[in-house]
Amino acid sequence: MSQNNIQLEELEKGDECIYFVKDFTVNPEINGKEIICDLFIKTLDMPTLTEWKEDQTPYLSELYMVPRPEFITKENIEKVIDFCGFDEQFIKEDARFFQKDVISYGLGIRLAGGMDSFSTQKEAIDAMKKVAEQCTFIGFYLDRSWNQIGTTGWDSLQQLVGNVDALKATINRMENNS
User: DSSP character for 22?
Assistant: First the structure.
């Protein structure tokens, strides 16, 4: 799928915009079970969120992966519901908006972005579309750590779908590799 063929559906508009990547899924496996996930692009309009200098480029973008609700543990669903203030019927009516709220809650799995800034929102979105094209190699993105202690996308995915504490999984891996 080329960048030009990637279609987006805007789910949230404002300082922070979130787009659902239509007709594109990734299916990583955890313990032999395929997990169906959707991709989302998030853009941030930094001048409205922080103090910003005129010579800085104002837009940041990130690419997220979120499992479909049927793969997320009940415990994690309840956390997101409590945080966002909706009920389980809402999830059945529109799973994409629930998945958007998983990102807002902080459980979305960031695959790329957040470091480069762009002059326009379109440039920021196009950069993440390019990355989304490569997500057929999802293991490459999940293998990378996304924080300074070494938590990987696999750790975060296991936390969402299997009640595994991502921080404990990271610490255990570090202890076993030393």
Answer: E
Give all strands of the β-sheet with 37-45 in edge-to-edge order.
8-12, 16-26, 37-45, 59-67, 109-118
Q: 73: buried, middle or exposed (CB in 10 Å: 19+, 13-18, 0-12)?
A: middle
* pTM for this entry: 0.84
| 40: phi then psi, degrees, rounded to nearest 5 | -140, 145
| pLDDT value of position 51 | 63
The structural domain count of the chain equals 1
162 found inside a domain: no
Does residue 158 sit within a domain? no
- State the Cα–Cα distance between residues 113 and 136, nearest whole angstrom: 17
